[in-house]
Write a structure and sequence with these properties.
Blueprint (H helix, E strand, L loop, with lengths): L3 E5 L6 H11 L3 E6 L2 H15 L4 E5 L5 H7 L5 E4 L7 H10 L3 E4 L4 H9 L1 H6 L3 E4 L8 H12 L2 E11 L9 H13 L3 E4 L2 E4 L9 E4 L6 E6 L3 H9 L5 E7 L3 H18 L4 H14 L6 E10 L4 E8 L2 H17 L7 E4 H4 L2 H10 L3 E4 L1
Parallel strand pairs: 1-2, 1-4, 2-3, 4-5, 5-6, 6-15, 7-12
Antiparallel strand pairs: 7-13, 8-9, 8-12, 10-11, 11-12, 13-14, 14-16
Helix pairs in contact: 1-12, 7-9, 8-10, 8-11, 10-11, 12-14
């Protein structure tokens, strides 16, 4: 069984939660890797005491240094990239392949996807498994669409919506992670699949936006389309599917109407210049506007060929746990040998949807049908 994992960014907000879930729900051995020795020592001590285990270790690691990565990868089965290091993907991937191990990342980045695809043939030839875009968005939309087909059958339309209301005030987020967060928002492609073809949403009007009722916590929210690589594969797998996509609600009026539009124009004109200032301003605004209720929701609404409606709502009070839990559930399938042995895949395209729903529920995700 493959059960030895190293988590780059293992002391970070999401990385430490992935480590906790692996220790609690599997028999994995986990190495949390980061650059700060003090944080590593503190995290290892905390997890050893909390779970009464000797299967957690730490390693000082620089994701941009090949020798440091080679040392970390020497005796593991898979590396989990949970840090804001999408710009270093080529360095990490090459060392992963040379070390003959598997790979998973939780980064949403069009830049990263392009870089990984360039390694696609080599990944397959070397017989290694690379899982990208793991988490809940991306990560779950494709899995939920497939779940709707298995659950109700003959699905014609399956659209996934999300709203994220996080308490940003107490989070210690590194600048590198903040910058990647901004890049993700600025670089996204507003595509959706309708009437059997992909269309680009108009961002100058609201005609392609959707108003979605998220239930008692947030009620109706306006959502905009956001394209994920995993959904392109689902369209090819489900011939009856005529409509799909992922739509996300906004953050607050200042970010949605002022900062994001300005950032998009600025980044196109000046690339990375000034991005730290934009990131600081964005997270300052997020912290200032943080107020309860705090909850992250992923909601799928589907119709079959008989025009019957179906709905599924997944939620958690913390968006970082909501990211970590699907990753841990995916890794359970990896450890059990249920995933493909080799190749490059988005997480949502290879997990068994019924099993991941079951495991996520056990790990704390609230799941409701409506």
């Amino acid at each position: 069984m493959k059960n030895r994992f190293a988590i780059i960014g293992g002391t970070g907000t999401t990385g430490i939660k992935i480590a906790e879930l692996l220790l609690k729900y599997t028999d994995a051995t986990v190495i949390i890797a980061a650059r700060n020795r003090g944080k590593i020592t503190e995290s290892v001590k905390l997890l050893r005491e909390k779970y009464q285990t000797d299967k957690i270790f730490g390693a000082v690691t620089d994701a941009g240094d090949k020798e440091s990565l080679q040392k970390l990868f020497a005796d593991i089965d898979m590396v989990i990239v949970a840090s804001g290091t999408a710009d270093l993907v080529e360095v990490v991937v090459q060392v992963v392949l040379d070390s003959n191990i598997d790979y998973l990342d939780i980064q949403y980045s069009t830049h990263k996807i392009k870089k990984l695809k360039a390694f696609g043939i080599e990944i397959k030839d070397r017989g290694k498994l690379f899982i990208t875009d793991a988490g809940f968005h991306p990560g779950l939309p494709a899995a939920l669409v497939k779940y709707s087909e298995y659950k109700w059958g003959n699905i014609r339309s399956a659209i996934v919506y999300s709203v994220l209301k996080q308490d940003w005030r107490g989070l210690d987020i590194r600048m590198g992670t903040k910058i990647e967060f901004v890049k993700e928002l600025v670089d996204y492609d507003p595509y959706f699949y309708s009437k059997g073809k992909w269309e680009k949403a108009s961002m100058l009007s609201t005609k392609d936006f959707k108003e979605v009722d998220f239930g008692e916590h947030f009620g109706k929210q306006n959502c905009i389309p956001m394209n994920f690589e995993e959904l392109k594969v689902v369209v090819e797998q489900l011939p009856n599917l005529e409509e799909t996509g992922f739509y996300i609600a906004g953050f607050n009026r200042f970010i949605d109407l002022v900062l994001l539009p300005f950032s998009m124009v600025w980044m196109k004109m000046f690339n990375k210049f000034g991005i730290k200032s934009i990131a600081r301003l964005m997270f300052r605004s997020l912290k200032k506007s943080s107020k309860p209720p705090f909850r992250t929701i992923l909601q799928m609404e589907a119709r079959n060929t008989d025009n019957e409606k179906f709905g599924l709502r997944l939620s958690h009070e913390d968006g970082y746990w909501f990211t970590a839990i699907p990753v841990a559930a995916c890794l359970k399938q990896y450890m059990n040998g249920a995933l493909p042995g080799s190749g490059l895949y988005c997480m949502g395209n290879i997990v068994e949807p019924q099993q991941i729903i079951t495991d996520m529920k056990k790990m704390g995700i609230t799941i409701e049908e409506f």
